[in-house]
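Question (not urgent): is this output format expected?
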Amino acid sequence: MPTQVLRDNVRGLVANGAQLVEVLSAAEYMEGHLVGAINIPLSVMDEETTAHLQKNRPVIVYCYDFQCDLSARAAWRLESLGFTQVFRYMPGKLDWAANGLPMEGKQAAVPHVSDLAKPDVPVCTMEEYIGDVQMRVQTMGWESCVVVNEQRVVLGLLRKDALRSKPDKLVEQVMEYAPRTYRLDADLTRAADYMQKHKLDSVLVTTSDGHLEGLLRQEDVQHALAGVG
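Got this back:
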């Protein structure tokens, strides 16, 4: 029976020699795929097309995302062909790219949020007082502070106006709840359009698990896009 795995499992298996197979079409594979993956579309998966794979060595199959069932069907197909250690990366390459892991293909060369996100943005907790946070943020030369928990999961955001609140206010009382976030593989143009439309000078960048990766500033995006043009 195929085993379902997540991205950290995939990284460990690949590091130990597992074979990595994308089962989407050749065109989708060329757009972008996990580094080191080969392409065997499910539509042509048989004894001949899998002959170069080792049947007693771990093999991981993946497709696009959770909703894509091609990897599930491909995993069972490989088992029917005699493969003994079959793994299915169920979240797929959308999850991989969204978490900033290495990709190859046409889209890998396109500028993404990951290229510009500032990882050194100040952080604070909900239990801190604004006065303490103000001093730290000013010392670091920033005008924003991200509210996180012990696991660096984003809980809120203090923008410039919130940081001007009374010093005895708790962060939780003035923070912006549920600020908009982008994944590391997001397109810069879409992020720029969103910030302009909502008159924001920045947006947060997180993993699909909600962990903080950095802050994307509109001025940096505009400068990068001007250079691309």
